[in-house]
Amino acid sequence: MLFAVRPCRAKAAIIGCPKEELRNVLKEAVLAAEELPHSPLGGAWALDAPINRESYLFAGNITEQTVDSWINLCKQVGIRQVQFRAG
């Protein structure tokens, strides 16, 4: 079997630093790559975001008919995050 090698514009980074500096160094690397999308709630920033330590609900069987009752339940108990589960 033959494999074709096609040029691409992929980039990679190798980071080396003391363990206690890793998160800050990762943040710097991600911010330096302006074209790289990132979330202030995930990745190296995950531990900084208070919302990541809030309660969340695993929910299944949410339909158009039941979504309003799910939303009301979340509002009543102060849940701002829902993990949807299918199947």
User: Count the strands?
Assistant: 2
Beta-strand fraction estimate: 5-15%
Q: What is the N-to-C succession of helices and strands?
A: HEHE
Name the helicity range.
Answer: 25-40%
N/C terminus separation: 38 Å
The domain tally reads 2
Number of helices: 2
Describe the strand arrangement of the main beta sheet, using strand numbers.
1-2
Describe the structure.
The chain has 87 residues and is of the alpha+beta class. It folds into two domains: 38 residues, no CATH class; 33 residues. 25% of the residues lie in helices and 11% in strands. It is built from two helices and two strands, in the order αβαβ. Strands 1-2 form a two-stranded parallel ribbon. The longest helix is centred in the first third of the chain and has 11 residues. The chain is flat, with a radius of gyration of 20 Å. The two termini are 38 Å apart. The mean pLDDT is 89.
Structural topology:
Elements (H helix, E strand, L loop, with lengths): L21 H11 L23 E5 L6 H11 L3 E5 L2
Parallel strand pairs: 1-2
